[in-house]
Write a sequence for this structure.
């Protein structure tokens, strides 16, 4: 019994890197002696490991790696030299794992203690950018938009971000950390899904359209949260930012984020609404010289078209009732005419 305690003590000293040459010789001679069974060594190593004071890596990968070490040490047909080498290898692995875990815990603690700041990204009119948030969620930010998010997300806490403009989100799933987008009084909450939010403060209507997963849309009126709707793929909520009224319509899933690929789809939209969105996409200014033209409604799709091609299509759709003129730098476009077809 005393011999076991001595070997146990030597083994712990070896793991801690404190064993001297003489102590190592005693330990390895003990292990090389065929009278000492492998299962005895297994118990000693397991006991020393379990009594180790430091926190361990309990992930399935680490457990599987250590089980492989135990298995190797239990092979009864191993040669004495092999047993000696396995011990050194096992001890090295344990030491490296402990050291790595200690470093990781130290760095993780440093990160947790760092203050959380807010980061913002604003796009210019006509600009489109792709971003990756700290939780690996992907955001496509449209022109004339601004997104604000924390420098890091805390596991188990809400992932709150602020959007003024339009963006398509591919949210990394995390059931313990709801992802919430604040756009004025409108709130869009998900766990992990893809969807589009249109919420320019200057516009009357906001919208949320879902491509995959489920999205909950609510209204925050002075701290009072009112659930508006739960959306699934192919559903689109239209929210009136002025009076709080809303409606739910359907939308083709493939059109939810079509603007990301330079495809702009309008279904029964007034010319005023179409021009307003085209200004942001193309970085142009429209001069609608007859306000009645803004009431004309169209179904239109513009895919990888220049602004000149877009205006030509508008002219054709109007039955040649709408005229236009583009200035030399393609930045200002005048429209006039008597009305719609």
């Amino acid at each position: 019994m005393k011999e076991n305690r001595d070997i146990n003590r030597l083994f712990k000293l070896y793991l801690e890197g404190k064993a001297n040459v003489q102590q190592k010789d005693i330990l390895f001679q003990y292990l090389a002696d065929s009278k000492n069974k492998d299962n005895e060594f297994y118990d000693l190593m397991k006991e020393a490991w379990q009594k180790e004071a430091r926190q361990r890596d309990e992930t399935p990968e680490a457990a599987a790696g250590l089980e492989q070490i135990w298995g190797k040490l239990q092979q009864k047909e191993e040669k004495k030299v092999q047993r000696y080498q396995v011990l050194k290898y096992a001890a090295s692995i344990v030491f490296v794992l402990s050291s790595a875990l200690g470093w990781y815990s130290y760095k993780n603690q440093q990160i947790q203690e760092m203050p959380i700041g807010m980061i913002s990204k604003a796009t210019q009119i006509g600009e489109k950018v792709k971003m990756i948030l700290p939780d690996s969620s992907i955001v496509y930010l449209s022109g004339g938009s601004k997104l604000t998010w924390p420098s890091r997300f805390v596991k188990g806490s809400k992932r709150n971000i602020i959007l003024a403009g339009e963006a398509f989100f591919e949210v990394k799933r995390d059931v313990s950390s709801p992802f919430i987008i604040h756009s004025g009084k409108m709130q869009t909450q998900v766990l992990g899904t893809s969807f589009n939010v249109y919420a320019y403060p200057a516009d009357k209507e906001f919208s949320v359209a879902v491509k995959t997963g489920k999205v909950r849309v609510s209204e925050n009126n002075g701290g009072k949260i009112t659930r508006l709707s739960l959306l699934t793929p192919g559903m689109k909520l239209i929210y009136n930012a002025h009076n709080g009224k809303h409606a739910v319509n359907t939308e083709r899933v493939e059109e939810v984020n079509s603007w990301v690929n330079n495809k702009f789809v309008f279904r029964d939209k007034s010319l005023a609404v179409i021009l307003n969105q085209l200004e942001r996409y193309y970085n142009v200014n429209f001069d609608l010289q007859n306000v009645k033209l803004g009431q004309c409604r169209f179904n239109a799709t513009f895919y990888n078209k220049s602004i000149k091609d877009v205006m030509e299509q508008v002219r054709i759709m109007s039955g040649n009732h709408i005229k236009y003129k583009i200035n030399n730098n393609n930045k200002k476009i005048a429209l006039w005419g008597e009305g719609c077809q």
Summary: Residues 119 and 149 are 5 Å apart (CA to CA).
